[in-house]
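Milestone M4 deliverable, item 7.
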Amino acid sequence: MKTRIALAAAFAALAVAGGAHAQSKKPVNIFIWNDYLGETTLADFTKATGFQTKVDLYDSLELLEQKVLVGKSGYDVIVPTAEPTLSRMIQAKVLAPLDKAKIPNLKNVDPAMLKLVETSDPGNKFAVPYLGGTVGIGIVPEKIKAVAPDVPLDSWDLIFKPEVAKKVSACGITLMDSAIDVIPSVLNYLGLDPNSEKKEDLDKAEKALMAVRPYIKQFVTGQNINLLAAGDACVVMAYNGDVNQATSRAKEANASHTVQYVAPKEGVQVWWDTLAVPADAPNKEGAHAFINFVLDPVNIAGITNFVKYANAVPASLEHVDPEVKANPAIFLPETAKVKLFSLKAVKQSTDRARTRVWTKVKTGK
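Output delivered:
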């Protein structure tokens, strides 16, 4: 797998490539998570449709919201997570309804996934499922065993139990820089409703996080892949696909350590990212062409093979690499006994309360 730098260079090159046919059309401006497209997705799209592409990367949902909610972002395709970002954007009326007649490949999407996303997007009017996964822990087992040989490797205790976190902190604990992801996971770990809006429950989550705050090395999301691949942290709260990419990079670099994904036994959040079009997108035609292209089974399989995230197109599985398809860290088996939960929309007052908790945790005071 190529490095993120090489992939970014490829994005830049594609912005000026594509020939005369591509140059006659407006480019499609895409705002997306880092490491979230296939190795040849953009080149294949340009070749198939004549549309050039320009890609900007973000590493937090907060940044995506800031850009789009202000308006005139210049983006044609964005990738909001169903909850809470997609539902917020729909409420704020900053998304354009999809012209489904221009997305014939929508027929390929799993109806169950459409129904799942429909809780955020009634009628599936504004978005389609793209890639999905879980929020768990990336570990470097050799480094953990070197400093804490007796700790369990299948539990959120690695991060959220003070006496365990204290031991493991010697090799580095990293928490996601995302109140949206961390607080529900802590609530679930405590045996509470992960979507709870009760003040007493948020107080308990804050107390739990403050108890382990001295042992958290840093708060990052976008850098998790590199941290794990380089072995600069041994316990990292992360998206499963980021851990899978880190696993591949460590192997390619012949690292002396291994990287594994753990879906903790106490339960993990399941999420779906979606493809949507801002209401003021300058190139809605190109946006619909891109979404339709991505929903082709062969094209979305290429993305899954590269980024190691599950997709919502069942027909793609015959084109997914066997080792990817069989990887339980990508496609959780039906026999998995891990508790799964998803996020639900919460009141603005709850969002503000979560933000206050998160600010206190990050500052440590």
